[in-house]
Amino acid sequence: MKKISFLVLLSVLFITACDKDEKETALPGDVKDIQFIDAKSYTDWVYFSFSKGKVVTVTDYKNDLTWDIAFHRGDVRLNGGESGIGKGEALNTQKTSWTDVTEAPTSGYIKDQIGKITTAYIGNGITEEDQPFSQTVTTWLTVDTSTPPPVYTVHNYIYVVKDADGDYVKLWLYDNKNERTDAGYVSFRYQYSASESTNF
After folding, report:
1. Which of the pair, 183 or 195, is modelled with greater confidence?
2. Domain regions of the chain by residue span
């Protein structure tokens, strides 16, 4: 009886060790490239699910876990903090090369807060409104409206964000224009960290 119990214990320890080893050596998740999401509306946000890889319909964003990130022209919203009930938050790695970011930091993430976004732009003036958004990820784009037309600068920062479930995602927003160079369209690349690992 003691011999059988000892063998069972060894088997459990072996399986546990294998599971732990598989998580620690997990391969990076698939890299996905999403182009030309139409976010040009000054009044509406466009919501996106990392797991589904597509835009999703959301009516009550603050109480909905089906979305992870949202776009409003150059503004970005994550499902967490002031923006939602999820675990979304973000960190700017300050790096501009996709391959330079290979691991998610364990601290330094910032949740969405209330701030001013532009809800109308009419030639020589803008209208602003207080809304929740990620003031960290929104640094991907600078818009100079001092003299029309607006001047856009994409900074190519690589961000690490957490989705609504708290999983790590490497994110690069690389363009705010469509193929006809119309502004208000968002193109980005993202990658999940596989099996709860912090590696990309």
Report:
1. 183
2. 30-196
pLDDT mean over 20-46: 80
Q: For 85-98, what is each residue's pLDDT tens digit?
A: 999 999 999 999 99
Q: Which residues pair with 191 in a beta bridge?
A: 31, 170
Contacts of 128 (CB under 8 A, 6+ apart): 116, 117, 118, 119
Task: Count Cβ neighbours within 10 Å for each residue of 145-168 and write b for 16 or more, e otherwise.
Answer: eeeeeeebeeeebbbbbbbbeebb
Residue 192 corresponds to which tokens in the numbers above? Answer: 């999940």
N-to-C CA span, the chain: 46
* 8 Å CB contact between 18 and 180: no
Q: What is the pTM assigned to this prediction? A: 0.85
Residues contacting 144, CB < 8 A, separation 6+ = 150, 151, 152, 153
In whole angstroms, give the CA distance from residue 175 to residue 159: 15
Type and span of the H or E element at 15: helix 2-24
Q: Which helix (H) or strand (E) holds 170?
A: strand 168-177
The token duo for 138 is: 């929104």
User: Is residue 90 within a helix (H) or strand (E), and if so which, with residue range?
Assistant: strand 89-92
